[in-house]
């Protein structure tokens, strides 16, 4: 079964991801389903400048979070009259993505924004771009060679794990639970971002004297999330806490939990989808919190790419150049604060 079919089987309503600020500290308008990205705040950097072409490559948008990445990138590029946005066909095939990036290099775009399917495997083509004089803004999944990119922008994967671990640790300690059974459902286990999330989770749990009992990856898909959760529920007759690293695959995870009739544990999600937030808001779900990983990092990447291509720095910083690395913070959404996050979402 394809992921799209799986999503139709399990998902009620669209996924919603959170918004974040970009290169200015001016307040941003809340997005809606038709306009997910806030308009650029008024600043000298937002005034029309030298015309630049921004090449863009990302995986196929068959996942709610990835779909939001593509939408945010395109919408932000359209806000600037001095930007020509040149996306290539999104793909989950490594070789096809390499070929697509090579086509952008051959087209001599001014700057590239790349979210690689796998940073290790696309590292060489990013190096080719850099060596050709085309700066690369590396989005989310990082290239291992720093010479392959000019600037990296992404979420705090380690921080996601830390936030989830602290929430679970605090909840279990407050309940007086000792030697808890804690299960973790990862995304794609081979990706450094997944490994960082797991490491942060484990490190935070250590502060409470806890550790992960069982860990399994679910490939960021609804179908596999359902299969993995079913397997873990069958293997552990009693669970105290579960961390699911991705709210999109969490649709399948929650379906499995409901099918099994299990409610003895607390669950934390990851990313901040509307589906997850509504579960949290209901107060009747095992899902008690989710930790954010905002896809509006794509909006920031486009803004940064434009500035780099035009030889500008960020207006709120003293330095004259865009920083080499920008990490977004991960926030914890619970029933107590979910109301303020709901309006920041957009349908994917």
UniProtKB/TrEMBL annotation:
Matching InterPro entries: Peripla_BP_I, SBP_2_dom, TAT_signal
Keyword Signal: yes
One Pfam short name: Peripla_BP_4
Keyword Repressor: no
Region feature Disordered, mapped onto this chain: 27-54
Keywords: Signal
Bias kind Low complexity: ranges: 27-43
Compartmental location: Cell envelope
Database matches in SUPFAM superfamilies: Periplasmic binding protein-like I
GO MF annotations in UniProt: carbohydrate binding
Superkingdom of this protein's organism: Bacteria
Primary residence: other
A GO CC term assigned to this protein in UniProt: cell envelope
Membership in a protein family: Belongs to the bacterial solute-binding protein 2 family.
Annotated protein name in UniProt: Substrate-binding domain-containing protein
Source organism of the structure: Nonomuraea phyllanthi
